[in-house]
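forwarding from the other thread:

> can someone predict this with calcium ion?

sure thing
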Amino acid sequence: MRNDEVVRTLNAIADMLEIKGENRFRVNAYRDASRHVEGLTEDLAVIASEGRLRSIPGIGEAIATKIQELLDTGHLAYYERLRQEIPESLIDLLRIPGLGPRKVKLLYESLQVEGIADLREVLQDGRAAALPGMGEKTVQNLRREVDRWEQRGRRVPLGVALPLVEEIIAALRSRSDAVSRIDTAGSVRRRRDTIGDLDILTTSDRPEEVLTAFTALPLVQEVVGRGDTKASILTGRQQQVDLRVVPSESWGAALQYFTGSKQHNVRIRELAVRKGWRLNEYGLSDPSADRRIAGAEEEDIYQALGLAWIPPELREDAGEIEASASGHLPRLIESNDVRGDLHSHSDWSDGAASIETMWEAARDRGLAYLALTDHSQSLGVASGLTVERIHRQRSIVDEINRRGNGPRLLLGVELEIRADGSLDFPDEELARLDIVVASVHSAFGQTREKMTARLVAAASNPHVDVIGHPTGRLIGRREPYEVDLEALIAACAAHGTALEINANPLRLDLDDVHARRAVEKGVWLTIDTDAHEPGNFDLLPYGVSTARRAWVEPRHVLNCLPLDALLAHLARRGRV
Ligand code: DGT
Ligand code: CA
Ligand code: CA
Ligand code: ZN
């Protein structure tokens, strides 16, 4: 049982308790516990074996006992009982904006609504509107949200899909020695921010055995298809996973074909056809000479077509084929190019750990610097700090820096951009900080004009160094607010303000398309984890993947600078 499975179970319990109408405290206890487990850097099994479960913040006796049971048996009786009472499919309904636990419970108990299909039906036929507290207006809004939800087409965030596919690959490896090479393909290999189905590719001389191991994995709920070389399954949360087994001489061709994107493949196949060749998932061949040209390695296929190998993140037919042909592919950023993190929180605002603990976590990951950027006063829900409180953090920061032997700690703030575009602290106070990340966390519903003016004003303030998560989106949960990003990018270019790629896989904000645009316009980017707990620093690769999809090189990213150069950059912006 891995940490993330425990996290998933604790969260599901919280959701189910909420639907049951249990009191806030119990619900929050499970949410808190799951958040803390998520932030752990240690294996829960290790912590449990040393009897230290209770030392994890947010974990009391009752939850510790349940975690222990999960770790020991792989099951939790309490959770199974809840699942008898509350169908798990109701949890999906909670994801629809406007449907809180009370309404979900009402719909379930009075109209037996158990999922999206049922919901759509009762919204159409008038039964939902007749329920107490619903009404025509609510029903109309819900109908629109259900449409949106279905348009998003059950895509899951990369942050859910990638750990799942990695778990499946590890399980296959350990359960069958018939597996030789194995890798992801499809959108997950291209690291799109959302994923439809998961694609896995493997080579084996015993395909039968591999497919049997796959369809017998514990997470399989239903086998939706099985042939000689391919199987598709659904997990309990209705996630489809496709596995294909190919002979090793076709590995490269299959990997190229099933990685996509479709548009990229169409162009690549055209190049082959122009040479009179044939390219498919089995290989590249010259039918006129009855000769096989390539197939075992992806590199050989690209090379035979006159191209340098193209990193999967670029394969969207967005100029990568031309760049590859002319030797102008970017030197894409990698995780270890990133030297520090410029956006993080401590328990002074809504973070879960002390400044010291966060700094230690950054040190353990080899960062050269870390900016402490707790929330500012207007953000009451996140215990935002007054300017006096932020300046009181200075002595702790100084003390840690005096000790040395780890990342340089910068004192900053995640500053509220208020609804009217004004900033939460006066300029002279901002000037005393090492770095300022300014973000929007309120009045998301403003008109495009207002929101644009608001962000442009912040980006134009000489004391603002970075605009945090610039569109406010939460993937699958909240649409980005309306904003003219071209105007924001222009303002950032004019004032030397950086735009953030927030690495949290629910955000990935800026997205790939706009990050690429920003770089084209000469705007600095940052790639930050926005860590609220030590474990969150491990989210960095998601931000790096987004940057790679945006053709970003290390020279475009502020926190790829060595400490001295970063400090010089900040100093030029009028900082002490
Ligand atoms: P997804 O699953 O919606 O997130 O996106 P993908 O890209 O993973 O799409 P998927 O799973 O339907 O197919 C995986 C790859 O297989 C796709 O990126 C390209 C290749 N592929 C699938 N069907 C076709 C096709 O009809 N023509 C071509 N050229 N390639 C295809
Ligand atoms: Ca796919
Ligand atoms: Ca697929
Ligand atoms: Zn933040």
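The chain has a mean pLDDT of 94. thats all i got for now
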